[in-house]
Amino acid sequence: MQLESILPSAPVNLPKTFYNIASSESNNNSPGSAQLEFQEVNRTEPKKYLSGGGSAMLSEGESETFSGNKSAPDGRKSSPVIVEDDLSTVRRYSTDELGSDRYFISSSQPSSDVANACSLFPYAGQTGTVYTGSNGSRYSASLHYGSVLPPTGFSSAVCAGRSQFGAGYQFGQGPGCLYPSYPGTGSSIGSMPIAGSGAGLRAQVYLCNRPLWLKFHRHQTEMIITKQGRRMFPFLSFNITGLNLTGHYNVFVEIVLADPNHWRFQGGKWVTCGKADNNMQGNKMYVHPESPNTGAHWMRQEISFGKLKLTNNKGANNNNSQMIVLQSLHKYQPRLHIVEVTEDGVEDMSGETKTQTFTFPENQFIAVTAYQNTDITQLKIDHNPFAKGFRDNYDSMYQAPENDRLTPSPTDSPRSHQIVPGARYAMQPFFQDQFVNNLPQNRFYNGERAVPQTNGLLSPQPEEAGPASTQRWFVTPVQQAGSNKLDLTYESDYSASSLLPYGIKSLNLQTTHALGYYPDSAFASMAAGWGSRGTYQRKMTTGLPWSPRPSPPNFPEDHLPSKDKLREESSSTSTWVETPHSLKSADSVDSGIYSMVCKRRRVSATSSSTENSPSIKCEDLNTDDYSKENHKGMGYYAFYTSP
DNA sequence: CTTTTCACAGTCGCGCGGATGGGA
DNA sequence: TCCCATCCGCGCGACTGTGAAAAG
C-alpha cells in the first residue's frame, strides 16, 4: 500500500475491481456457519494501490472468504472469525481467542427476538477483508462493485430465492451472528486479532453513539444523499482500544452495499424492488482526516466521521474525497478500517496484514434523496442539532445545561462536540441499551404509512439488575403477533437492532471530553425513555392514530429515582393519564404534549380522536413520562443549551 | 407515479471589527 | 495617551428538513 492511498490529502478513488459473490453453507466449519466468497471477476489494474486514482485490487485468482456463524450452538466455539493475512490463506480465529471476557448468545431460534443472536450483538471485528501485504490489493472497497455485504434486515425472507445471497451473509442479522458487547459501555464492540501477527494486538472498536444508531435502525435508517453532499446523521463515531500505542494507523470508513436489492418505500414499509446496481461508480471511502496517527492518538478519544458526506453525484469522487458516492434506494453498510502503517504513513509492506475491519449492522442505512419514513424524519429532527428549526417545542428543549446533551452539537469540530461518546456510556449502569422497550408494532401516518416496528423488548432480569455497572443483562424474548409477513420480517430481523447488548463486562473507556456530556441522569431518562418516553411526542399534535402501546417496561428500581419510582408505579396503573408539563406555555390551548405544534410539519387531517385512548397511544407519547422528564429538568429533549 | 432537484426558512458556529476597560 | 486584552454584535457560511417543481 502506498502512502498516498491513506493520506487525507490523497484522493482515494474507487477500485475498479469487480467481484462475484457467492455464499454457501459451510460444512467444514463450525456448525451453522456460512461463507461468502468474493471472487474477483474483472481486473484492469492489478496490484494497483489506492493512491491517486489507483485501485484496490486483488491479485488474479484471489478471493476472499467471509464467514458468518449462522448459529452458534455452543455460543462461542462455533463463532469463527476469519482473518486473512493473505488472500490465499484464510486463517480462522475462534472466538475463544478473543478472550474469556466475551459472551455470546448462541441462537438457532430463527424468529424469536432473542434467538436472533445477530440482533443482539455487534459483530466482532470483521475479518476476511482482502488486505494483504504482498500484493497491495488490500482495500475491500472493491467489494462494493460486484458484491454486497450480507443483507441485514431481510436476510431470510427477502432474499429467499436469491441463492447467491440467501445463506451465508456474515453481516446479516441472520441467526448466529455474534455480537460481543458490553452493556456498560453503551457501545457496540467488535474485535479481532491483527492478522498475521501472532503477538499482535487485538483492536476493539466501540460504536460510540450506538443508542442513537439503534433508534434509527429499528425504523430502518435512511440517509439523505444530495448532489452537493449530505452529512450522515447519525454519523459514525468510534472508540478504539487495543492498538499499539506507538504504532501508526490509518483509519477510514468504507460504505458498501449491504444487500443485493433495490429498495422502495411502499405501504409504509421498505420492500425490495429489483436488484441493486452494483456498478455504481464513485468514491466509497472516507479517510479520517487525522490519518495517519498513532495508536495512542486513536485511542485517546473518539474517532468521529461527522464530516463524511454522502452524495449521489458520480463526479464527486474526483475532487472531493470528503464525499462518498452512493445510489439512492440502495442499502449500505459502513465499515471501519484500521490499517497499521509505518511512521511516515506508508502502509507496512512487510508482508503481514495489519488491517482490521469492523462492521456494525446498526449502521446500515438506505440512501434516499428524500425521506420516506416519517419516523426517520422525526428522529432526525429530534436528534440532529442542525434540524433544530423543525422542532416544535424548541424553546423548551434547550433549557438544560450543556452537559445534558444527548445529541451532538453541530460544531464542525469532530472531536469536541459531535460525538456521542460511548465512553460516557461506560459510566452508565443505566445505559440505555439495556432498555429496549416495546415499540408499537405499527404506526400509521395519515392512515397509510404503517411503519414496521420492532418489538425488541428486552427486560433486564430483576436479579441481574443490580446497581453495579457490571451487572448482567439478559434478553427476554417477547413474542408479538406480526400483522403481516413483512412485519414479521422486520420483527425478526430488526430485533437485531433493538436488542440489548449482551454481556457481562463493562468497559470503562472514558475519554477526557466525553465525561462532561452525558450525565447519568440524562441517560437514565434516555434509557427509560427510549421507546417509552417522549420520542415522538410531537406527532401527537398531528392527531395521528397510534398503534397499541405495550405497557411501560419495568425498570429496575435501582435505576429509577424514588420519585420516578412512584411515578412509574402510578403510571403502571394509570399509564395514560395526561399530565400537564411544566414547560407548557400558559396560553397553549392544549395541555401537555398535545399542545405542541410542530413547525412546518406535515399535519395529518385526521383528527386525533384517539388521544385519550390507551389502546392507540404510542409508548413514546406517554404524557406521564413526558411530564416526568420535564420535572427532572433534563428530559429526553434536553440535548443542548443555547449559549 | 415515483424520484430527484431546487429554493427556502430556520438555526448555529465562526470570524471579523468595533467598543470597552485596565494597565503602563 | 497609548497599548493590549476582552467582550459583544453582526454577517456569513454551513447545515437541516420542507415542499413545490422538474425529471424520468
Which key features would you list for this structure?
15% helix; DNA-binding; transcription; DNA-binding transcription factor activity, RNA polymerase II-specific; 643 residues; alpha+beta; 8-stranded mixed β-sheet; TF_T-box_CS; single chain; 5-stranded antiparallel β-sheet; transcription regulation
Unreliably modeled segments: 1-199, 394-643
Helix content: 10-25%
Distance between the termini: 46 Å
Shape: globular
- Measured by DSSP, the beta-strand proportion falls in 15-25%
Q: Sheet bearing the most strands, described?
A: 8 strands, mixed
Mean pLDDT: 49
Number of strands: 23
Supply the number of helical segments.
Answer: 14
Rg over C-alpha atoms, rounded to the nearest angstrom: 23 Å
Content-based structural category: alpha+beta
GO cellular component, one term: chromatin
Subcellular location: Nucleus
Main location: nucleus
GO molecular function, one term: DNA-binding transcription factor activity, RNA polymerase II-specific
